[in-house]
Amino acid sequence: MPTVEDLQSLLTPETLATWAGNVVAGLAIVLVGRILAGWLDRAVRSALGRAHVDVALAGFLGGIVRYTVIFAAVLMAAQQVGIETTSLMAIFASAGLAVGLALQGSLGNFASGVMILFFRPFTVGEVITVGGVTGGVLDISLFATKLGLPDGTHVLIPNSSVTGGEIRNHVVAGRRRATCDIGVDYGSDLDQVREVLTRAVTSVAELHTFDENPGYGVVFVSFGASSLDWQVHAWFKPEDFLPGQEKVRVAIYKELNAAGIGIPFPQLDLHMQKPAA
C-alpha cells in the first residue's frame, strides 16, 4: 500500500497543475467534439435533404455521424487525462456485444428499416402487399412499417418481415389492371360474346389508356367444365381501381343479360332408378 509520503510526493503543486491542465484539455476536447458533432449532424441532414433523401434516413445517418464524433472526442479526452483507452475500448466492445445479443430481433428490424429507407421500394401513400397484407403505407419507421387497411384498421409489420418476403407495389407504375373472369353458356356465339364484353368494358369512363394500349382486353381463355371461360382486362389509375373494377363487372352482367347470353352455374343432375324387382 502507498504510504503517506508516497501520496505527498504525488500531490506536489507541479503534479496537480499538470493533472488540472490535462483535465481542462480533456473537457475542452469533449466540448469541441460536441459542437463539431452537432454541426456535422446538421450538415449531413441538410445535404441529404437537398438530395431528396428520405427524412428518416437522413436523420439516421446524421445521428451516426454525430455520435461517432462524440465517441471519438470522449476517447481523445480520456487519453489526454491519462486513462488507458485500450481497456475502455474493451469495455465498450463487451457491452456492445451483450446489447446486440439481447436485441437481435430489434436490431434485425432496425437494419431492415435502414434498407427500406435507403432503397425505397415503397413510400408513404402507396398501396403495397407484404406478408399477405394489402394496405396503404401510413408510416415507415426504423423498426416497423404501418399500413392502413380498407376496413379502417391499422397494422404494424416488423421491418424484418417486410424485407424478408415479397414486396408488391400496386401504384408505383401509375396504373393497375383489373381482371374479371366470366363464363358463358356453351353454344354461345364467340364473336357475339367478344363484342358484348368489349362494349361493356369500354362503357366504363374511368378506363385508362396509355402509350399504344387501349386500356382493355377481352380474351377467350378456356373450355370450362360447364362454361366458355373469358377474361376481361381493364386498366385504371390507382385511385380509380376499386370503383372501376366494380363498374366493369356491373356492365358485363347487364350487357350479357341484354344480349340474352347466359351465365352458367354449377348444376347436379340426379337420376333415380327403381330397384330391380
A few lines on this structure:
The chain is of the alpha+beta class and 277 residues long. It has helices spanning 4-10, 13-50, 55-81, 85-102, 104-119, 159-163, 190-202, 241-259; strands at 127-130, 133-140, 144-148, 154-158, 167-169, 176-184, 216-223, 228-236.
Walkthrough of the structure:
This protein has helices at residues 4-10, 13-50, 55-81, 85-102, 104-119, 159-163, 190-202, 241-259; strands at 127-130, 133-140, 144-148, 154-158, 167-169, 176-184, 216-223, 228-236. By secondary structure, the chain is of the alpha+beta class. It has 3 domains: 16-102, Helix Hairpins (Orthogonal Bundle); 121-169, Roll (SH3 type barrels); 176-259, Alpha-Beta Plaits (2-Layer Sandwich), CATH 3.30.70.100. A 5-stranded antiparallel sheet has the order 4-3-2-1-5. The protein has a 3-stranded antiparallel sheet with strand order 6-8-7, with helices on one face. Strand 2 (133-140) and strand 3 form a beta hairpin. Helix 2 (13-50) packs antiparallel against helix 3 and helix 7 (190-202) runs antiparallel to helix 8. The termini are far apart. The mean pLDDT is 82.
Describe the secondary structure blueprint for this structure.
Blueprint (H helix, E strand, L loop, with lengths): L3 H7 L2 H38 L4 H27 L3 H18 L1 H16 L7 E4 L2 E8 L3 E5 L5 E5 H5 L3 E3 L6 E9 L5 H13 L13 E8 L4 E9 L4 H19 L18
Helix pairs in contact: 2-3, 7-8
